Amino acid sequence: MIIINFKNYVSGKKVLILSRKIEKYLSKSIICVPNSDISSISEKTKLEIYAQHVDFQEEGKSTGYDIPEDLKNSGAKGSLLNHSEHQVSLKVIEKTLSRCSGKLKIIVCAKNLSEVKNILKMKFKPWAIAFEEPKLISSGKSITKYDSKKVLEFSNLLKSTKIIPICGAGISSVEDILESERLGCNGVLISSVIAKNKNPEILLRKIKSIIV
Question: Is 132 marked active-site?
Fold first, then answer.
């Protein structure tokens, strides 16, 4: 599973241009576009669109919040939550998982194994957990190489659950993706190596070549 987080590296027409490049090579990938672009990209591509963040607030008096109903109606199938660049408390994670139950698939990002263990104790479970070492994000230094023991421990924690183990932080090559599989993960969360790349097609082609 390939999940590509656009962050705010691209905006306006560039979001659609990048989305179409991804669709050409990785039609079954998930893309996390800026929330303001969800409706447009979901209408113009067949990719599975996820939000970059979702809030637990209710419909009605909740000015400025991205609530599950609005994101779903805009075309989002799921959302990231607790990314290292948009962290929330464990209490907020739990409330948000409850609010999104039956509405959106949630990928909760976790910065360490302690956080993973706390998420696993929650009544409402995420669809997936993305284990990311914050200091490696956008560094080009892959978590699969620099923290491989923790990645393996992470995937083992999820073995007895239905939650999908994903790893991220510094994933920048086909080799990193293959190594993530060997360490027990079922997907990777990628960002800057594609979203900031002037010629992302080169890597997208390489990734396509290893996707069964």
Answer: yes
Q: Which domain holds residue 201?
A: 2-209
pTM of the model: 0.94
List 94, 132, 133, 179, catalytic entry = 132
Q: What domain count does the chain have? A: 1
CATH for 51: 3.20.20.70
Q: Which two tokens stand for residue 88?
A: 């929330």
Of the residues 53, 83, 133, 179, which is catalytic?
83
pLDDT in tens, 68-92: 999 999 999 999 999 999 999 999 9
- Copy the structure tokens of residue 13: 């027409």
CA 1 to chain centre: 10
For tokens 């990734």, what's the residue?
207
> Would you call 83 a catalytic residue per the annotation?
yes
Nearest to 93 by CA among 59, 69, 117: 117
Give the integer Cα–Cα distance in Å for 211 and 101: 30
Q: How far apart are CA 208 and CA 15, in angstroms?
A: 21
User: If you search the block for the tokens 């939550």, which residue do you land on?
Assistant: 81
Q: For residue range 155-180, list pLDDT tens digits in order.
A: 999 999 999 999 988 888 999 999 99
Backbone dihedral angles phi then psi of residue 80, each to the nearest 5 degrees:
-75, 160
